[in-house]
């Protein structure tokens, strides 16, 4: 319709100027004739009768001009009528277009409102749910479920990212709890270690006090003949300096004893023999005579868990006393054997004979072998002398 209206306007615009110009020219011709007639009559002072005027104006030329003028005016009138109708039609179309645009705008507003409602329900509401879940997770509720995980749009992607964030937060909290528990266990272990260390130091002090209070000398060796511990009496027996302590070697002790004149054997053979006994875990006891005349009694025993403990006792006075006692016993036995009176020794409990001298043998008429160990009731009958 708009194209037809524009086409009519173009045709009307092309036809109207020619008709308008012809009508204007006709009017001007008539006007010029009237002016000429007025000028001629005015100059001559003549009056023209109506009949003469009609005759003057009603000629062929004027009639032709009037006919053309009337035709042009009618055509112009038709053109203006057509243009007026087209204008009315265009106005109607404009009204229809305005209503159409109004309805279209109204429909757009309704669609926009529906879109807002749909966006609020499908996007804003979902985002609000995810935001609430985020607030709960941020508040420490890591067990809270994240909604809309199964959606395949951006909201679902955001929800899955939020779930990954929640899982990461959960792992972080678990790691923090694990670190806290580990710290507690470490502190407990440190406390227990300190307690054990205190107990160890107390036991070590007690052991040191115990071995130092022993009258014998004591030395502990590991499987390689290194000194684990020694007491003061062992150090005193062999005159060891303070530089020899726990951690030193038995070879170093033997070297010092050689220098001090208390050892004269071969060090390598002596060490090999001790290592062999340690390896075989064979206990032994023996005595050694030092170059200064002392006698040392040695007891060696294997330790549980490996190693070797050796107890050294200075038995010089004991052995001297034993020798004195043996000499005294031999002297007394000689005296008892050589006296003329019979002497019999009997156990007070069992009443068994313990000793009989020669004079008693003669008096009883029995040999010493027949009497010793018997009682008076089970003694053989006396042989006649």
Q: What does it look like?
A:
- With 385 residues, this protein is of the alpha+beta class.
- The chain has 4 domains: 2-122; 140-213; 215-320, Beta-Lactamase, CATH 3.30.450; 339-385, no CATH class.
- The chain is 66% helix and 10% strand.
- It has 10 helices and 7 strands.
- The protein has helices at residues 2-44, 50-57, 60-138, 154-212, 232-237, 250-259, 267-280, 316-338, 358-364, 368-371, and strands spanning 217-221, 227-230, 284-289, 295-302, 308-314, 344-346, 353-356.
- Strands 2-1-5-4-3 form a 5-stranded antiparallel β-sheet. A two-stranded antiparallel sheet has the order 6-7.
- A hairpin with a 5-residue loop joins strand 3 (284-289) and strand 4 (295-302).
- It is rod-shaped and about 235 Å long.
- The termini are far apart.
- Mean pLDDT is 80; it is low at 1-14 and 41-45.
Total number of helices: 10
Global structural class: alpha+beta
Number of strands: 7
Uncertain segments of ≥5 residues (pLDDT<50)? 1-14, 41-45
Strand content: 5-15%
What is the C-alpha radius of gyration, as a whole number of Å?
75 Å
**Shape assignment:** rod-shaped
State the share of residues found in helices, binned by percent.
Answer: 55-70%
Spell the H/E element sequence. Answer: HHHHEEHHHEEEHEEHH
Keywords: Coiled coil, Membrane, Transmembrane, Transmembrane helix
Organism: Bradyrhizobium ottawaense
Domain HAMP: 121-174
Transmembrane segments: 97-118
